[in-house]
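Annex B. Sample input.
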Amino acid sequence: MTSPVALDPELDESKPGADKGEQKLEGRSPGQLMWQRFKRDRTGVICALVVIFYFVVALLAPVLTKLSGTDPYTLYGQDPTYNDTPVLDEFGLPLGWFGGLSGSHWFGVEPQYGRDVFAMLVYGMRTSLFMAVAVTVLLMVTGIVIGLIGGYFGGRTDYWIGRVTDFFLSFPQQLFFIAFMPVVTAFFVDPREETPTYFRALAMLIVLWLLGWMGMARLVRSTVLSLREREFVEAAKVSGASPGRIVRKEILPNVVTPILVQFTYQLPSTILTIAFLSFAGVGFVEPTPDWGRLFAAGSQYAQQDPAFIFFPGVALVIFVLAFNLLGDSVRDAFDPKSGR
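Annex B, continued. Sample output.
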């Protein structure tokens, strides 16, 4: 199948013999067309820069906390080493303005313990973003493979895959997220022992993967069903191409657009789910920094110190909003009928 091209009427005066009245017809690939449309979308470009900024901050969390001179684990309000510079009053509330903002603690400190909010936030972003990327990639790959198999082969294969998908969709996700996490960890860790952080991350990965691939599978299946009867697929069959080659070379390139758009929506949704698990007490726990755990702590300090949750809340809202707007821009960039 030949790739579609766009005709770009531009005069090329640099070539010898080029006529000023002639127009050069320049062919562009679908990827180039998409990039051109995306660059014209200021909202999409700004949101992409915001998302990149968040990932850079997550990657450089150790460097940033070294610059601030803090870390997310030290109890600055209880450690005798820091008695010369107290950060909490006798009631356990931050000293100073807006939750204890100062040159030493850029975003203030946590009530009762005095941990640095800036260090907790950047490390919490690191934990949540890396975990969300791993989960999203895994469930996207699973959904793509299952959707391709069911959509291309059809018949009984599609029927049984559809029934398995319906079975997993029947689970109320948030309830089973909470119920399955202790079950998964209990299989491998004695309930009387503390669950290691790496194992909690692995258990969350398994649970979110098992209960999250179905939407991607249905999206890919519906797209493949509309593609498998197209002329270029029939031509590939007639030429003797194997099913694997047809799926890989003819069908898969044509489902890249919905896959990328779905990825931009799935990642922020996964971050919110991970935060929800930690907020509910079945995800990451003390002392692991995590966005959800910051919200759980903030709910306890809401009346005494509402400033504690301000920076984590604003950071999460901006990230989710930017990623969702980025998804809209990517979708519009892939749509040749879009006016953007």
